[in-house]
Design brief:
It comes from Oxyruncus cristatus. Residues 1-25 are annotated as: Disordered. This is CHM4C protein. The chain is mostly helical. The chain has a domain at 23-102: Helix Hairpins (Orthogonal Bundle), CATH 1.10.287. It has helices at 3-8, 14-19, 24-59, 64-122, 127-152, 163-184, 204-235. Helix 3 runs antiparallel to helix 4 and helix 6 (163-184) runs antiparallel to helix 7. It is elongated, with a radius of gyration of 58 Å. It starts with a helix and ends with a helix.
């Protein structure tokens, strides 16, 4: 008995018969066996067609009767080959449909398992407790943000002093330093003779007085600039 005959006559395992029908895996295995058997049948028919065609060419006009018989056999083989092609297409379609059905069944079964697992996980969860927990987390995050903001703010020590008073005190100190510097400078005595009428012939001592005065002014400006820089650095 051929494989295809056993398949359509219900040849299968005793377990399959006891369950009232084959499992998807068993049915798919049978379909693949049938496809393999029909494929081999195709190869056999194709080789017979080639052989009969060669016989018809060999006899040709020499033995027209033998040539015609070979062509008739070739036609029968071609008809069987066409039928097998159609059968293979039908089996292939059925196998793909069964595979898809089996896949869908497995997917649905696994989804059912996952749903049961999720249900079991959520059994011990209370939505009210979850809301309270999320509220506590939000409050603690707000507290942490406030602490971070308080730490990151710049300290304002010393801002209670009056800036105008400090500037006035600084000017007094600058004036004292200037007066002290003036006392330390020994100026030459003023000549008793009258100054010449032309400015180009001033005495040397007068020129020294002007130079010293210019140096004192430059020194005072430099000290003022240094004191202002120190004050700006201290205020920042």
């Amino acid at each position: 008995m051929s494989k295809i005959s056993r398949f359509f006559k219900g040849g299968g395992s005793a377990a399959s018969k006891g369950r009232g029908g084959p499992s998807p895996q068993e049915a798919l295995a049978r379909l693949r066996e049938t496809e393999e058997m029909l494929s081999k049948k195709q190869e056999f028919l194709e080789s017979r067609i080639e052989r009969e065609l060669a016989v018809a060419r060999q006899h040709g006009t020499k033995n027209r009767r033998a040539a015609l018989q070979a062509l008739k056999r070739k036609k029968r083989y071609e008809k069987q080959l066409s039928q097998i092609d159609g059968t293979l297409s039908t089996i292939e379609f059925q196998r793909e449909a069964l595979e898809n059905s089996h896949t869908n069944t497995e997917v649905l079964k696994n989804m059912g398992y996952a749903a049961q697992a999720m249900k079991k996980v959520h059994e011990n969860m209370d939505l009210n407790k979850i809301d309270d927990l999320m509220q506590d987390i939000t409050e603690q995050q707000d507290v942490a943000q406030e602490i971070s903001d308080a730490i990151s703010n710049r300290a304002t020590f010393g801002d209670e002093f009056d800036e105008d008073e400090l500037m006035a005190e600084l000017e007094e100190l600058e004036q004292e330093e200037l007066n002290k510097g003036m006392r330390d400078v020994r100026l030459p005595s003023v000549p008793s003779t009258s100054l010449p009428s032309r400015p180009g012939k001033l005495p040397a001592c007068h020129f020294m007085f002007l130079i010293i005065k210019s140096c004192l002014s430059t020194r005072r400006r430099a000290e003022d600039e240094d004191e202002m820089k120190k004050l700006a650095a201290w205020a920042s």
